[in-house]
Design a protein that fits this description.
heterodimer; A: about 290 residues; mainly alpha; globular; B: mainly alpha; flat
Chain lengths: ~290, ~170
């Protein structure tokens, strides 16, 4: 057994264990009640991993040697990738639940994603040798496109949530970050293993990288589900509830005046230094919020 | 090679944004003291004055090219700082609107939703304004649009927001 196959098999086993543990702790800590969107994905992934890995380790076959394994493996991969995209989209809709313009945002997202998908597909297929490839190569190519689409979707959601800004609660952001880590590491592995100039020289290493990349998300999810209380922001939110609105609603104006008083001299000095010296036209004024 | 670089950049961007989501500070999860300390002062009159095209033309006529270039850089830095503060404050307004919209009092809830929507729009406008401000460095005809007026309207809405029934409800709820 070569060093590469040894690493590959160990990583696959580790990933299998981590995913199973993540699934167990997901239900044990009752996160399925708080993030039901993730339930289908993790149950399907865990079940599929058990089927594939059991078959693989019982018969010691790789997919090009066994037609049954081939169909099970690729069927599982395609469904898992589709579920992954749907789960991320469902998480985004959950974040938007309090936003009354949710329908309008959805109206923007779906056409944008379809446009991205069509553009990426056309660009990819024009640059590929689709007709010369075998079925396995075509399926791997489709999987890579799924990964690119997933990265694009994640970037879009992350930008939208930072811009709006949307509220990420525990463990939703951990799950989302796990997806991000998964897509990013898989894309890095594919890119280094396939698109890097002279990548064919690194092929066994590229395959190991791809397998290692698939380990990232289960490990991350396991950590998130095992140590959920490490997130200090969420703990603050849980402890304070809505209490923080009282003084703001009662003494809004006074608070603003206090801030103005605190900042006025500092900002006035900055503005003098920046502007009045060079232009001589802008007069200092009272600051407000 | 171009495709290789693009894919690496996409992967790096995904990782960076994921990190920002997981470890970044969430504006919506801050207590009352933090909100008061977090609000940043903005003088809208000064910002409007700073970006006034007539004043800019006046200054252009009285300064040499190098002086005017330095003035433009200072103008950009100052205006960008103000827009950054406005965006930051808008995030606080979003939090306020979101909390108020969950009230059981229909009037407060409606006002909270309206505030939330306006504040979200303000965040988008702040981003567009910053892009326009950057473009203004090269193309003087660019302006930051109706950002200042929208910010002023949102601020007025927030300053008239105190609602005793809402606070009482919160108090009894605790």
């Amino acid at each position: 057994m070569s060093i590469y196959s040894w690493i590959e098999q160990s990583t696959v086993t580790l990933s299998w264990i981590c995913l199973t543990l993540a699934c167990i702790f997901f239900f044990r800590r009752r996160f399925h009640q708080r993030v039901p969107e993730f339930t289908t994905f993790i149950v399907f992934s865990t079940f599929g991993n058990w089927v594939i890995n059991s078959y693989y380790f019982m018969y010691q076959v790789y997919h090009f040697r066994s037609l049954t394994y081939f169909y099970i493996y690729w069927g599982f991969i395609v469904i898992q990738d589709a579920l992954q995209l749907l789960t991320i989209y469902a998480i985004f809709l959950t974040l938007l639940r309090k936003c009354s313009s949710r329908q309008r945002i959805r109206g923007y997202i779906v056409p944008t994603l379809v446009l991205c998908l069509i553009t990426a597909s056309i660009a990819n297929f024009l640059g590929s040798q689709w007709s010369d490839w075998r079925l396995t190569k075509r399926l791997e190519f489709l999987q890579q496109n799924f990964t690119v689409l997933g990265c694009t979707l994640l970037c879009f959601i992350a930008c939208a949530s930072l811009l709006m800004p949307l509220s990420w609660e525990r463990p939703l952001k951990g799950i989302f970050a796990g997806f991000g880590l998964d897509y990013a590491s898989r894309l890095l592995a594919y890119t280094l293993g396939v698109y890097r100039p002279g990548a064919s020289m690194l092929w066994p290493l590229g395959r190991v990288l791809a397998v290692v990349a698939e380990l990232a998300a289960p490990v991350f999810w396991l950590i998130v589900f095992l140590f959920p209380r490490r997130d200090s922001n969420d703990m603050n939110c849980a402890s304070q509830g809505f209490e923080f609105l009282f003084p703001i609603l009662q003494g809004w104006t006074n608070s603003i005046e206090a801030i103005v008083h605190h900042y006025r001299s500092k900002v006035r000095m900055d503005l003098r230094r920046l502007l009045i010296g060079s232009t001589g036209t802008i007069q200092n004024g009272d600051l407000d919020v | 090679m171009v495709f290789f670089v693009l894919l690496i950049a996409l992967a790096a961007l995904t990782l960076t944004l994921t990190r920002g989501i997981y470890w970044g500070k969430n504006h919506l999860l801050i207590n009352c003291d933090d909100i008061e300390k977090s609000l940043q002062p903005i003088n809208l009159d000064l910002l409007q004055n700073l970006l006034d095209p007539e004043q800019e033309n006046y200054i252009r006529m009285r300064l040499s090219s190098s002086q005017f270039f330095r003035y433009k850089l200072k103008q950009f830095r100052t205006a960008n700082e103000y827009l950054s503060r406005a965006s930051h404050n808008a995030a606080i307004f979003v939090a306020l609107g979101r909390q108020a919209s969950s009230s059981s009092d229909p009037a407060t809830s409606v006002r909270g939703k309206a505030l939330f929507e306006t504040a979200v729009r303000l965040r988008v406008l702040a981003l567009l304004a910053r892009i326009n401000l950057t473009m203004k460095l090269v193309f003087p005809q660019f302006s930051i649009g109706d950002f200042i007026e929208t910010y002023d309207r949102t601020r007025a809405r927030v300053s008239h927001f105190p609602d005793l029934s809402f606070t009482e409800e919160r108090r009894s709820g605790s």
